[in-house]
Amino acid sequence: MPGLDTGNTGFMLLCSSLVMLMTPGLAFFYGGLVGRRNVLAIMIQSFVSMGWTTVIWFAVGYSLCFSGGSGAVIGNLDKAFLNGVSLTSPSPLNHSIPEIVFVAYQMMFAIITPALITGAFANRVTFKAYMVFLTGWLLFVYFPFVHMIWGGGLLATWGVLDYAGGIVVHNTAGLAALASVLYVGRRSVTDRGPHSIPLVALGTGLLWFGWYGFNAGSEFRVDATTAVAFLNTDVAASFAAMAWLFASWIFEKRPSFLGLLTGAVAGLATITPAAGYVSPVTACLIGTVAGVVCFGAVALKNHLRWDDALDVWGVHGVGGFLGIVMLGVFATTAFNPNGANGLLAGNATFFLHELVAVVLSSVWAFGFTYGMLWLIDRVTPVHVTQGVEEVGLDAGLLHEEAYLEGSI
């Protein structure tokens, strides 16, 4: 294809692979956090997204996200089943890489986003209801926000920026998680998780590693901004991990390995929308604030007795919201000439647009998710039966076990 840059293309293939690895990493992360009777049930929800989301993405998802005119809420079906995507068609956001590579990279984002939500309703949702939920949520929440922000749609015309998914991925998933918790209700059987903190550590390592592709890859080329996004990702995660560790040490009177791991993920989620638009010094600040604020959000959730099993709202919902707000404050063209200046640089309009966009995404993701679960419940039960919850979803739904009796 004319103008093909093999370096950029190779880099984006690598980043696509890294983002793909994040979904198995999420499965390990969530799998370690639940009790031993529900490990497979939570892990299959991540892995099935790798299969089913790919099918939807190939059929209509890519087209709904990245076709159609500017200023719309959703795209059209001009590129359904990858119609018109050829060896020579260029990526819509960077003509030096093939569109085929862009399709693959964005597909990996679509796979992991709904999988994030599953940690909120762990141990109590039927598999049939989850499959319907996964389909509807992609079509009516994820795809519209991808189009509106990254596909040249409504929010993009307002000048809204979201480098790698503070709104598109984390805020929408986190608010959907909160809606799921409030609709589905509390678990009737006390879960004895986390059953394996080493498994959580493995998942965290895979997520952290894959996040470099998630954030640095969102530049869609190799340049200085790519390097800034890479560095910002690491320092924000590190500062957030330490902030959460010290917060837990102060308030719980002990250092917590699980807190350290959770804090790192909170920092990664919070820096995601700003990674390519702020300085490394700002990334340190964002990470620190993320560790403290997300720790506080989880404490609030516990106080209110919301049964967000794996703290999806506190980490991803609050982290994504916080990241967008701080992007609106700290963005600077000194570190990305193609970005924008934020509130501290005198651009109050950009800050207000970011704030309005993230409030809009929060309200829509929460409201639609709650309503969709109500509709699904009219067709097929959302909550598993008391008997299934008592024996565990692995045996009760899948008739499979993660561990032989007496093995751990």
Structure description:
- The chain has 408 residues and is mainly α.
- It has a single domain (6-398), classed as Ammonium transporter fold.
- Helix content is 67%, strand content 0%.
- It contains 14 helices and no strands.
- Helix 11 packs antiparallel against helix 12.
- The radius of gyration is 20 Å and the shape is globular.
**End-to-end separation:** 55 Å
Which second-level CATH architecture applies?
Orthogonal Bundle
Radius of gyration: 20 Å
Q: Could you give me the name of the CATH homologous superfamily?
A: Ammonium transporter AmtB like domains
Order of helices and strands: HHHHHHHHHHHHHH
| Count of discrete domains | 1
The CATH C-level name is Mainly Alpha
Keywords:
408 residues, mainly alpha, Ammonium transporter fold, 14 helices, 67% helix, 0% strand, globular
Question: Which helices and strands occur, and which strands form pairs?
Answer:
Layout: H1 6-33, H2 39-66, H3 99-117, H4 127-150, H5 154-157, H6 166-184, H7 197-216, H8 224-252, H9 257-271, H10 280-304, H11 312-330, H12 348-379, H13 386-391, H14 393-398
Helix pairs in contact: 1-2, 1-3, 1-7, 2-3, 2-4, 3-4, 3-6, 4-6, 4-12, 6-11, 6-12, 7-8, 7-9, 8-9, 8-10, 9-10, 9-11, 10-11, 11-12
In short:
The chain has 408 residues and is an all-alpha fold. It has one domain (6-398): Ammonium transporter AmtB like domains (Ammonium transporter fold). It has helices at residues 6-33, 39-66, 99-117, 127-150, 154-157, 166-184, 197-216, 224-252, 257-271, 280-304, 312-330, 348-379, 386-391, 393-398.
